[in-house]
Amino acid sequence: LEVQKYSDQAVKRLEDIRNDLLKDLENQRARFDAVTSELDSLQSNFSTATKNTVAIEMTVKEIKQQRDDISKQKDDLARQLADISHKMEVEIKTREDIEKASMSKLL
To answer: Which residues form a coiled coil (predicted)?
Structure first.
């Protein structure tokens, strides 16, 4: 009877330990699921951030190219304006010389 009592206590103790281990296992599974979910979320956010970064870098590259193109156009237009201004000055001078020559012939 005494052996039976110790045997029953040992079985009860083993069942308690088993139940505690099952609770711990369930808690670890829940923790694992939470960590896995957070990792998935972080990976998704990282992927999105990486794609956004690539898109921003491409946009910056395009804007720099547009800036360079506009700068070249500005330089070309400045040269054209300088050429036209010079031609106008030459034409004005020529016209003034012709007018002076005409006036001197009339006098």
So the answer is: 11-80
How far is CA 23 from each of CA 15, 30, 31, 37, 53, rounded to the nearest angstrom?
12, 11, 12, 21, 44
pTM above 0.70, yes or no: no
Instruction: State the Cα–Cα distance between residues 27 and 36, nearest whole angstrom.
Output: 14
